[in-house]
Amino acid sequence: MKDRKTRRAVDWGHLALLLLICGVVTAYLLDARATSLKVNNLLLVEPAAILALILAAAVLPQCFRRKPEEAGGEAEAAAQESWRQLGKVAALAAAFGAFALSLETVGFDVATFVFTAFGIYICGERKLWLIALFSAVFTVGIVYGYQLLVPYPFPLRVL
Amino acid sequence: MLDFSAVGDALTLLSSSYIAWIYLIPGLLIGLFFGAMPGISITMAMAIFLPLTLYMDFLPAIIFLTSIYTGAGFGGSVPAVLMNIPGTSSAVATTFDGYPMARQGRHNQALGVALAASVIGTLSSYILLLFLIAPVSAVVLKMGPLEMFAIAVWGMLLLGSLAGNSVWRGLLAGVFGVLLGTIGMNTAGYVRGTMGVPWLLDGIPTIPAMMGLLAASQLLNLINTHYLIEDEADRKISFARILDGVKLAFTYPTIIFRGATIGVIVGAIPGVGSSISNLISYSETKRNAPDGDTFGQGNPKGVIAAEAANSSSEGGAMATMLALGIPGGGATAILLAAFAMHNIVGGPSFIANNKDVVYAIIFSNFAQAILLLFVGLGFVYLASAVVRVPLRFLIPSVLVVSTFGSYAIEGALSGPITLVVFAVIGWAMVRYQYPVAAVVVGLLLGSLLEQNLIRTWQISRGDLGYLVERPGAVLIFALMFLSIGLTAFSRWRRRRLLSALTTEEIGS
Q1: Are A36 and A101 in a shared domain?
Q2: Whole domain around residue A120: which residue ranges?
Q3: What is the pTM of this model?
Q4: Residue B490 has what pLDDT?
Q5: Which residue did the predictor score with more confidence, B482 or B199?
Q6: Which residue in A49, A97, A122 is closest to B420 by CB distance?
Q7: Is B165 on the interface with A (CB under 8 A)?
């Protein structure tokens, strides 16, 4: 599918997102139908799910676009930069997920300190003493601040 | 037009306790701070502080959130003037003349002009709201489930079709949001889509989902930006010159009035709002001004037109939210969520039963607008420092604040888990240009849509002839199609205006 000046490019990320949306919608529709086929159950869910799948089909061609051929070096550099940037986002998102899941097990104070320090490092700060100082001050501030405002107990390990 | 006994009750409500007032200045400051941070939207600021309002009474909670709304409306113009970066989407037109003024060393004057225009714009929009809210509520009270369903669909369609580059992606985002909003047990008692997770029986926790979609996802997007502002040269602020700018704005009442009127009308349409009103006001002022040729080269009239329109859109959006219970965008969606957190359902019955509270909200907004003038003066003086917060410290800190906030809602991990899941979904959707605001509104309206549709089905027993018995609903559906046509036109016009204005700016 290549010609001299353009090439057919698949936007894999967009395609994955679209498939995820379709997967969630289909699974939900099947689950709703398995619950009951009564009108009161499916009145909105079934037509909305079918509409979502039709709309996803309409968006699908946008995942396949013709793009101009770039010079080899430039394209490679751009791709490398993009992967590096994506890696940072993935690392921060993974750390964020781990932080959320570990709050009650390791304590809000420890989890907050570790995530803040790690997050600042991922975002580009390299002075370790500054990372440690900021994270410690921030953790103490946010834990005591929220304890004052919120009636729920926050499980803590050190503070 | 004005219910005087309710006005009296509202004044009593506001004067009986100082509690409603103490959140006003903190709210304005939070709004100014977040609005001035490019990439951090009004909605994001409100989403982050929404969980705090759970522990306030209803009126102070709404006053706090609307203060953030008011503050952020002006906050966005600070980086627009100083750095040519609109802090919010509604400050785009402010950059056209604000930044050239800054380049000419008139940034103090530009900030003063923007502040005064914002204050007057907000004030005039709430004056209009004060007189119109009672008649509007009388009309919408006559609406049944079918009419409410029609209006909810209308809002969804507008938001889905307007927010974003692709209509299909916008609509898909909206419908996806509606489906997510129906997960859990519906009004007829059927349980769907919970995957066996007990806390999903009540549906997806809306507030953490909203915080994830609107705030956390944007922060993940900013990770590769080291500094919002790299160039720090010559950004000193002169208080006297800011005051000169404030005085200058008062010499152009016609431009402010035109901008405020455009702002209220456009702001009241769900899905349109301030991001379009500032452009329309700017172009109308340019068209009518004798010195229209100097627009884009540092003409303060351009800044006044843009700021008067974007700040008055707040009143318009509030009218739609209060009268119909339909959020016009992200910020009013959060206000509606705050209503729900206090077990209050927005919409026609709310206005009819709580006119005093509605008037109290309007009066507090008068106070917010006047206070904004003073708080804003202090803020712009310090603004040059605020806009230079290094993102490497800001991103993890705001993520932690969001997580604490989402945990605080129910004291359970369901909040933080929802926050993370929707942050990732939101990040992916923003990356591929799906309007996350449409998912948020869908999520909020999903159960309302289903509830009203089931009620209509039960009343009509599935007979389509019921539509004929409800001419109001037919009228709404007709207006819906007309409005979609008009907004599609305004979207096309916005694109044309933007490209024309940008071309002119490049040319000049």
Answers
A1: no
A2: 71-159
A3: 0.73
A4: 65
A5: B199
A6: A97
A7: no
User: Residue B433, SS3?
Assistant: coil
A89 to B220: CB separation less than 8 angstroms, yes or no: yes
pLDDT > 70? residue A139: yes
Name the nearest CA neighbour of B193 among B181, B184, B202.
B184
- Do β-strands A6-10 and A64-68 pair in parallel, antiparallel, or remain unpaired? antiparallel
Who's near B145: CB < 8 A, 6+ residues apart?
A: B451, B452, B453, B455, B456, B459
Buried b / exposed e along B370-406 (16+ C-beta atoms within 10 A): ebbbebbbebbbebbebbebebbbbbbbbbbbbbbbb
Statement to judge: residues A75 and A65 lie in one domain: no
Q: How many domains does chain A have?
A: 2
Chain B nearest CA to A45, separation (Å): 7
Indicate if the pLDDT at residue B364 is higher than 60. yes
| Cβ-Cβ contacts under 8 Å, A62 against chain B | 166, 168-169
Note whether A137 and B400 are within 8 A (CB).
Answer: no
**B218-255: string of b/e by CB count within 10 Å (b at 16+)?**
bbbbbbbeeebeeeeeebebeeebbbebbebbeebeeb
Do residue A58 and residue A102 come from a single domain? Answer: no
Q: Cβ(B359)–Cβ(B6) under 8 Å?
A: yes
Restricting to B residues 22-61, those with a Cβ less than 8 Å away from any Cβ of A are 52, 55
Identify the band that residue A31 occupies on the pLDDT scale cut at 50, 70 and 90.
very high
Q: How far apart are CA B241 and CA B44, in angstroms?
A: 32
- Render pLDDT for B430-440 as a digit per residue (tens, 0 to 9): 889 888 877 88
Q: What is the enclosing helix (H) or strand (E) of B140?
A: helix B107-140
Domain final residue, candidates A69, A100, A118 = A69
Residue-wise pLDDT for B245-260, tens only, equals 889 999 999 999 888 8
DSSP state of B212: I
- What's the burial of B84, exposed, middle or buried (CB within 10 Å: 0-12/13-18/19+)? middle
CA atoms within 13 A on the CB side of B146: 21
The larger pLDDT score, comparing residue B398 to residue A140, is at A140
Whether A89 and A133 share a structural domain: yes
pLDDT on residue B229? 45
DSSP state of A123: T
CB contact under 8 A, B400 and A138: yes
User: Which site among B171, B221, B224, B418 would you substitute to test the A interface, given the most A Cβ atoms closer than 10 Å to its Cβ?
Assistant: B224
The stretch B336-344 carries a mean pLDDT of 84
* Location of structure tokens 């002075």: A127
Work out the percent of chain B whose per-residue pLDDT is above 70.
Answer: 85
Q: E strands, B193-349, where?
A: none
**Structural contact between residues B439 and B85, judged by C-beta atoms closer than 8 angstroms:** no
Name residue A9's beta-bridge partners: A65
Give the domain range for residue B303.
4-507
Q: How far is B508 from chain A (nearest CA, A)?
A: 31
Cβ(B302)–Cβ(B93) below 8 Å: yes
Residue type, B421: V
My answer on whether A77 and A16 are in the same domain is: no
* Last residue of one domain, picked from the residues A69, A95, A118: A69
User: Are A11 and B432 within 8 A, CB to CB?
Assistant: yes
Residues A62 and A75 placed together within one structural domain of the fold:
no
Give CA–CA dist B497/B275, Å, rounded: 13
Indicate whether A151 and A82 sit together in one domain. yes
* DSSP 8-state class, residue A154: P
